[in-house]
Amino acid sequence: MDLAAEKFAALSVEEQGDRVVVLLNRPEVRNAIDQQMVDELHIVCAALEQNPRILIIAGVDGVFASGADIGQLRERRRDDALQGINSTVFARIAKLPLPVIAAVDGYCLGGGAELAYAADFRIGTPDVKIGNPETGLGILAAAGASWRLKELVGEPVAKQILLAGKILNAEEALAVNLITGIHAAGDLLGAAHSLADRIARQDPLAVRITKSVFHAPAEAHPLIDQLAQGILFESQAKFDRMQAFLDRNAERKASSSDTADGK
């Protein structure tokens, strides 16, 4: 699938070699997530499932996503809820083969927060406001927050957010590791790319398999770890990278020996 050939309206999509950058692009409604954005995120997911690359997700105009589109949400009924419109695409994003980085600025609420929770990494700006105000609207956070958030920040904080409507600022989110770094707004995408660069320096197959093993259910361990390691032990990258490590160590030792001998 060629993303460059696709026409996006709710997203801005840029392919950069080993990564894809997606900007949520509905500034007139603070990047609220509507059906079109969901459909376009599915297109991006299909491309990354076919050709795995790192995904960076951010918003435009100083906002990540203010939530789901309330106008559309107001009209949805039981059958719409049972379709899992947002939860399905967020689960797909969470299961992408290579890591997903959410670069969060400003409002990251409701469905926008649940999209960020589905990422493997979250970094933010000092203006971050992240949380789930769904119960104040007479619904629940049903696109992942009701179970992902507890895994991310622990039960006490998750209940503050989900049951009491607490919105975390950047420092509060950092303190509970909901985000792992705070950067000036102008540096946010650069920081996301720096993190992507670090990931890209690892062996892609090892990263991909490690992500799958990390998210495997508890009962799958340790067997899944052993099977995964068996696959990696046979990969050419393992031999090449380990040999390069040994060669560098040998060179350092030789250099140290020459220095000690006064050469």
UniProtKB/TrEMBL annotation:
PANTHER family: ENOYL-COA HYDRATASE, MITOCHONDRIAL, ENOYL-COA HYDRATASE-RELATED. This is Enoyl-CoA hydratase. GO terms for biological process: fatty acid beta-oxidation. InterPro entries: ClpP/crotonase-like_dom_sf (IPR029045), Enoyl-CoA_hydra/iso (IPR001753). It holds the Pfam family ECH_1. GO terms for molecular function: catalytic activity. CDD domains: crotonase-like.
